[in-house]
Structure formats: structure tokens, C-alpha cells
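Re: weekly structure request thread

Next one in the queue (85 aa):
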Amino acid sequence: DPLISKAAFMSVTLDDLQDAINIKGVIEEYQNGATQTGYKKSVEVEVYNTMIKNYHAIMKQLIELLPDKSDGYVAGESLKAFLSS
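Done, posted below.
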């Protein structure tokens, strides 16, 4: 359950970050002091890049928890057995 909750949170947050990136763009201007300015990756892009890696790791863990189809598992079989009992 904790993995599913974290994956759901990350999925929603990644969508929000993607919307922000689409609106603001992938770079932002910065200013250090009075004379130094330039462009850098936006904060949203940095957070998105980090979170998407963690999201993929969690999704991989969840997929690994699924039953192995080579063991004769058929999708929906457990549900059918439950409903017919």
C-alpha cells in the first residue's frame, strides 16, 4: 500500500510539474548579485527529472510484485473464484 500511495502522489505531482513546464518553459533566468545573470534549467525541470526516476523505480517494484504469468496465472482468475464462491 505505501508504494501505491507514493506512486499515485508522484503521478499527480509529475502531471502538475509537466503543466508548469509547458507554461513556463524548461529554462529560467537567474541573477546573482548586481551584474551576473544567465539562464539555467527551471526548478520544475530539476524536480521533474528527479521524481520521474523515483517514479519509474517504484513502478518497477510494483510490477515485480505481480504474479508471474509463467506459473499458470490467468488474469482475473482470482476474482472469478471469489465471485463464484
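The mean pLDDT is 89. The first helix runs from residue 2 to 24.
Next request, please.
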